[in-house]
Write a structure and sequence with these properties.
This protein is α/β, with parallel strands linked by helices. The chain contains 19 helices and 17 strands. It folds into three domains: 64 residues, no CATH class; 113 residues, Aspartate Aminotransferase, domain 1; 237 residues, Aspartate Aminotransferase, domain 2. A seven-stranded mixed β-sheet has the order 4-12-11-10-9-5-8, with helices on both faces. α17 runs parallel beside α19. Bound molecules: pyridoxal-5'-phosphate (PLP). The site of pyridoxal-5'-phosphate has 11 residues, from α8 and β10.
């Protein structure tokens, strides 16, 4: 390859250090790092040597290609209609949570009492906010995610003993991760009772004995069974002489009329759960986190267990979680509560603008879903832009990426999960994709 280049073009390509001295590249180096900037310069030099670009445009070419941020993660516009989409980061944080992360990013009193100069309970503000949000919990603890909350409970309360669980609740939570395997990895033995569709109180009662660490009730959060089914109400399970741990999954703290079938922490505790585990980034609308709520003696055992240190939650998460609990309604709930008529009006306005720009666009009736995070089977009426399916790929790779879903050979951009202030960004992205 090298020999094929015109020798004069090669000579005229500016030296790397000279290009890096360009003020625009020097400024970018402070944001995204000198070695990253250098890589873009080297790429541009290579193109100049090959004669793809003029030698005097190396700096301009590098500047044009530079990423804006030091992370390769991209901000994505969620037009999938799935409120909590695990592949694109589940819950979007509120502005309050983002602000809290900025505050905690430097040194912070996460585990330090500024009044006395002594060590303090880690994340106490977050713990207090969570406890205040669920008064039925005697105590609460926060770990890295829902799976970690379950693993900590299983390890501390049932390692070397048995966890009694219904066969109908042995679920896979996604990406090949199965709860039974997760629990077995802690050294607890699973004692399965009942059948896939029916489990009775006597199934549990017969299984419970001196070897039982706890009875586990798991919310099947990503599917529904219909037909000849039965499961045992929590209030009845709570009569058994062992603790009942309830994995509600979604992180709904109290009942919500919008999702009547979705279990919540307060109700589970009032019905007799000894411990509730949940995620922070599903229906709570906060950062990835695992919540543990319940009996003070059990929460204390979990907090003191050596494994607690391995699933300890980060200061940024604590900050965002507290802001989610104390702050304004997070984007996930804004999306869930959005009036379909308002979504329709936005879709019509964007569709009209797109047609004026020469992009054929339909206004389509669609349905949004809560997502892997909860409320399986619940559909929320919504509206979307109906576009040529060929636009799906250029929209995904555009700036910013817009992800929709292909339905019956049509690309649908459901605006329920898109913030109204992003409508024009979506419109511009579609125009750019149509021109690509
Ligand atoms: C999502 C979910 C989990 C796992 O929680 P993560 O926060 O993703 O680790 C566990 N159990 C149930 C029922 C869930 O829905």
């Amino acid at each position: 390859m090298q020999e094929a280049q015109p020798p004069d073009a090669r000579r005229r390509v500016p030296r790397t250090d000279d290009v890096l001295a360009d003020p625009r590249l020097a400024a970018a180096a402070k944001v995204i790092g000198r070695s990253t900037v250098k890589q873009y310069v080297v790429d541009a030099q290579q193109r100049a040597r090959q004669g793809d670009i003029a030698a005097d445009t190396v700096a301009d070419t590098a500047v044009a290609a530079l990423p804006e941020h030091a992370t390769t993660l991209r901000h994505v516009i969620n037009a999938t209609g799935v409120v909590l989409h695990t592949n694109i980061g589940r819950a979007a944080l509120s502005a309050a949570a983002v602000d809290a992360i900025r505050v905690a990013a430097g040194h912070t009193d996460v585990e330090y009492d500024l009044a006395t100069g002594a060590r303090a309970r880690r994340g106490r503000g977050t713990v207090h906010a969570l406890a205040a949000a669920v008064p039925a919990a005697e105590d609460v603890h926060v770990v890295n995610n829902g799976a970690a909350a379950l693993v900590l409970a299983a390890t501390a309360l049932a390692r070397g003993r048995e966890i009694v669980v219904s066969r109908g609740e042995m679920v896979e939570i996604g990406d090949g991760f199965r709860l039974p395997e997760l629990l077995a990895s802690t050294g607890a033995t699973l004692h399965e009772v009942g059948t896939t569709n029916r489990t009775s109180l006597s199934d549990y009662a017969d299984a419970v004995g001196p070897e039982t660490g706890f009875v586990l009730k798991v919310h099947p959060s990503n599917f529904v069974v219909h037909g000849f089914t039965s499961s045992v109400p929590l209030a009845e399970l709570a009569e058994l002489p062992v603790p009942v741990v309830v994995d509600i999954g979604s992180g709904l703290l109290e009942p919500d009329r919008l999702l009547p079938a979705e279990p919540d922490a307060a109700t589970a505790l009032r019905d007799g759960a000894a411990l509730v585990t949940a995620s922070g980034d599903k229906l709570l609308g906060g950062p990835q986190a695992g919540l543990l709520l319940g009996r003070a003696d059990l929460v204390d055992r979990l907090r003191r267990h050596p494994l607690a240190r391995a699933v300890r939650v980060d200061k940024l998460t604590l900050a965002a979680l507290e802001a989610t609990l104390r702050g304004p309604e997070p984007p996930a709930w804004q999306a869930l509560r959005r009036d379909p008529a308002a979504v329709r009006a936005r879709v019509e306005a964007v569709a009209q603008a797109l047609r004026a720009d020469g992009v054929p666009t339909e206004v389509v009736r669609t349905a949004s879903v809560v997502g892997g995070g909860g409320a399986p089977g619940v559909e929320l009426p919504s509206w979307g832009l109906g576009l040529d399916a060929a636009l799906a790929a250029p929209l995904r790779t555009g700036h910013p990426p817009v992800v929709g879903r292909v339905e019956r050979d049509q690309l649908v951009l459901d605006l329920r999960c898109v913030a109204p202030e992003d409508d024009d960004t979506v419109r511009a992205a579609v125009v750019a994709a149509a021109e690509a």
